[in-house]
Amino acid sequence: MKLAAVTIDCPDPDALAEFYARATGFERSPDSDPQYIELTGPNGVSLGFERVADYRPPQWPGQQTPQQCHLDFAVPNLDEGEARLLTLGATKAEVQPEPDRWRVLIDPAGHPFCLVIDGA
What we know:
Helix content: 10-25%
Shape: globular
Mean pLDDT: 91
Largest sheet: 4 strands, mixed
Radius of gyration: 14 Å
Distance between the termini: 23 Å
Strand order of the largest sheet: 1-4-3-2
Number of strands: 8
Order of helices and strands: EHEEEEHEEE
Number of helices: 2
Low-confidence stretches: none
């Protein structure tokens, strides 16, 4: 078994796909449509963005609306990675449990995601 895709619910697949395309360099699939947009990355792994009616963003760290899952992205430098993603439209979460080890950011649709130091 190998991971093929991660799909994220959102109110506007086009806007969220654009954010993640700019953040990761993944390419938009020509099979995408207004309800589901797919970005393809290395080794065929993809990120999907699916339109959901009455979408409610997760609340982090609170659990009024749980996050269900989140993405981690490895970067060579936390400060530089954070700065770049803030210019693309992310926001920094108020709560930062271990900011020297990872940073919690929020994507434009309200999903928390983390930046971690690239250990490779």
